[in-house]
Amino acid sequence: MNLQVLVYMRDPEFGRMVKTALSGTGAVVFVARTVAEALDVVCQRGRKLTFALMDFDGGCRGMTLLSAVHTCYEDLPIAVTTSKDADHVSAVAYANGARRCLAKPPEASTLAGAIAELQVAGSRLLAA
To answer: Which of 114, 51, 89 lies closest to 41 in space, CA to CA?
Structure first.
C-alpha cells in the first residue's frame, strides 16, 4: 500500500525537510501551496490520504485548512509546524484535530518520528 501524503507549505525550507524525511518511504506526496490547492487534494483523494503535514506560518490560512480537513475527515492524522507563538498555535491546533504540533525548525529526528507516528495511525485507518 502506497502512502499518500498531503503537504501544505508556504516555506521552501519546510518542503526540503519533508522531502528528506519521506525519502525512501515510497510516499506519493501532494504538495499544496494554497488552501484551495490543499482542499482540492482532500476532495479528490479523500480517505485515500494516509496523513497530512501542514506548515502554519503565513497567517490563519493553515488553521482554517486544518479545521476544514478535520471536519471532512476527522480521522486523518495531521501534524502541523509553526515558528510563531508555538504554545498558542499548538493549543488551538490540537483543539482542531492535529495529532502532532512541531516548533520550527524541527530536528530531523523529531520530524521523522512524527511522520512515522502519522504513518502508523493512517495505515490503521486505511486497513480498517
So the answer is: 51
